[in-house]
Specification:
- This protein is an alpha+beta fold.
- It contains 20 helices and 11 strands.
- Strands 2, 3, 4, 5, 6 and 9 form a 6-stranded antiparallel beta sheet that branches. Strands 1-11-10-7-8 form a 5-stranded antiparallel beta sheet, with helices on both faces.
- The longest helix is centred in the middle third of the chain and has 43 residues, at about 365-405.
- The two termini are about 40 Å apart.
- Bound molecules: calcium ion.
- Calcium ion binds near residues 38, 194, 195 and 233.
């Protein structure tokens, strides 16, 4: 059998107050048969009725499938179930008066299903955003309403509003209402018992069916909905999905119509960019105004056009990279490039407004696509900026390595060839042995003298003391950083950092010199030198980190670019939400006309 059902799922729940569950359900995707049944009768009779009817219908259709028309087949299956339940009710005193509702969906072929029902279990069709009731309840009140014998208000309060006018099992014969329903990919059918419809509004049910979740999740959500609505009855829902709808994606529309609409306005784009002062941007300084327009604005317009057409971002990316590379290679500032991009974005906005003004249906989608292209521009430029930042950082690391190890222990070149870690690893050292500590103390006094003799640079004495403390104590990098921050703060403002580095340098040289002059064993001297050198390196690294943090405008530029991108992304998200809403509204209007042209929606 060919079926377009791609996914179906059912769930049933006893509800919050009923002692047992008299509902039954059937999901047989292979056979293409789905059903919900709601049993009634004393004790366990309701459960027996619905369960028996389900099994008979299932078995009947399985064995008679090939011999009869689908409508006759399901009618006959329901009659067979009726006969069986009616007989059982007569034969067992406990089952007297039992019966059940049934609503069933039988897949006929790729384009049709048959819906049959007896009682007040219902079938709904959800199509393109709108839900439609397919069945008419077989209740006394519904029959009275149909004959105009009562009003809707009366019906809501009628004492017999739950009394069925038709059910499966209470009489020897039953007639089901059977309809053939053409379906298409993307439709969703819901079969449910009155435990759902009695405790959940049709609006809420419609919303859940339209959630785009799987059939399984949707069925679970519907049960949950009825439980939250009170759940005073057994609740059953079967959701049947008939394939994915193959509507043209709006990217396809943008590709064909949207890109042409954009391209037609190329001259308008150039003009708008000119009016906004494109040719006076420093980025265009070496170009004549006409060249600036053609190369900067014209090429962007063309890149956007090609990306719309091919649904890619590569052309815009290449454009932005080339432009930014040229600018950065001249040491141009990011700020100026960003101003230029703002001019181009403003011009693009004018074009989009013009397209929207003309009421072209893809205007919103095009807006999103172009905004996305401009984000690609931001990202391409941001990527270049990040590369530049990495270069600056590498330079600093190299510089720091040289500063730190330059003259230490007389093996400058050997150390400088080994790049240090850009960030310090946490290192903890034990307190020095007494003889090493003593050596360090003696060296400190000598170092102070050496400093005084040389003419100490500003802050050098401080640096010496900090390094000495670090050499004695088991300090970690965070302590060194703290000391460095204090030193930086003590040096005045950050513009005086180079002076601080000079002071650190001087302190290190005299410190190590003073240690070398100590009259101790080679072993003790080496240990003291190692500790002091380590302490100075930590201090210098920490100061260099602060320099990187405080004097790298590139990282600020990156932050600004990222903020701008976030803003643009927000705009895209809002646009896409609005587009989805418009599409939903459009789909609903179309569906209502198609499904039920005569009926007005309340
Ligand atoms: Ca019920």
């Amino acid at each position: 059998m060919t079926s377009i059902v791609v996914n179906a799922s059912g769930q049933t729940h006893t509800g919050k107050i009923r002692p047992g569950n008299e509902d039954a359900l059937l999901v047989d995707t292979e056979l293409g048969l789905y059903a919900v049944l709601d049993g009634m009768g004393g004790a366990k009779a309701g459960e027996i009725a619905s369960g028996t009817a389900r099994d008979v219908i299932h078995q009947y259709i399985r064995t008679h499938r090939e011999h009869t028309s689908p409508k006759d087949l399901i009618q006959a299956a329901i009659q067979a179930a009726n006969t069986r339940v009616h007989r059982d009710a007569k034969q067992h005193e406990d089952y007297k008066g039992m019966g059940t509702t049934v609503v069933a969906c039988l897949v006929v072929d790729e384009k049709n299903v048959v819906i049959a029902h007896v009682g007040d279990s219902r079938a709904y069709l959800w199509r393109e955003g709108r839900m439609e009731l397919l069945t008419r309840d077989h209740t006394v009140v519904a029959e009275l309403l149909l004959r105009n014998m009562i009003t809707l208000q009366d019906a809501a309060l009628h004492p017999h509003r739950n009394v069925l006018s038709r059910n499966l099992g209470s009489k020897p014969k039953v007639k089901a209402d059977v309809m053939e329903l053409p379906v298409r990919a993307g439709d969703r059918i819901l079969l449910c018992s009155d435990g759902l419809t009695g405790f959940a509004s049709s609006d809420a049910i419609e919303q859940i069916l339209g959630s785009n979740d799987t059939a399984e999740d949707t069925a679970a959500d519907l049960i949950d909905l009825a439980l939250r609505g009170g759940g005073r009855d057994n609740i059953t829902a079967v959701v049947i999905d008939t394939g994915r709808a193959e509507v043209p994606r709006h990217t396809q529309i943008i590709q064909t119509t949207g890109s042409v609409a954009w391209w037609r306005r190329r001259e308008m784009f150039l003009e708008a960019a000119q009016k906004r002062g494109l040719s006076s941007s420093p980025v265009c300084a070496v170009l004549s105004p006409d060249e600036a327009l053609e190369i900067v604005a014209g090429n962007l317009s063309e890149a956007i056009f090609h990306d719309l057409e091919q649904n890619s971002g590569i052309n815009v990316w290449t454009y932005a990279e080339n432009l930014a590379k040229g600018w950065f290679d001249q040491d141009g500032e990011y700020e100026i490039l960003r101003d230029l991009m703002d001019i181009l974005r403003g011009a693009a906005d004018e074009i989009l407004a013009d397209i929207e003004k003309n009421g072209e249906p893809y205007a919103l989608g095009l807006d999103i696509a172009v905004t996305r292209a401009l984000i690609v521009v931001e990202m391409a430029i941001g990527g270049l900026l990040a590369d530049r930042l990495r270069t600056v950082e590498a330079d600093l690391v190299q510089l720091r390595t040289r500063q730190t190890f330059g003259a230490a222990e007389g093996t400058a070149s050997g150390f400088a060839d080994q790049p240090t870690q850009p960030y310090m690893k946490p290192v903890r050292v034990d307190p020095p042995p007494p003889e090493v500590a003593s050596c360090l103390h003696l060296a400190l006094g000598l170092a102070h003298n050496l400093l005084a003799r040389q003419g100490a640079r500003q802050g050098a004495g401080d640096c010496l003391v900090r390094a000495h403390e670090a050499a004695l104590e088991p300090v970690g990098p965070s302590d060194a950083e703290l000391a460095a921050r204090e030193l930086v703060a003590g040096s005045g403002d950050e513009t005086r950092v180079p002076l601080l580095i000079d002071a650190l340098d001087q302190a290190r040289i005299v410190h190590l010199d003073a240690i070398k002059r100590q009259d101790v064993t080679d072993e003790v001297r080496a240990a003291a030198l190692r500790r002091a050198a380590t302490a100075h390196r930590r201090l210098m690294c920490a100061v260099a980190s602060i320099v990187i943090e405080s004097t790298v405008p590139v990282s600020e530029a990156l932050q600004a670019a990222s903020a701008k991108t976030t803003e643009l992304r927000d705009r895209i998200a809002k646009g896409e939400a609005r587009l989805a809403e418009l599409e939903r509204q459009q789909a609903s209007r179309t569906t209502m006309k198609k499904i039920n042209p005569s009926r007005s929606r309340s």
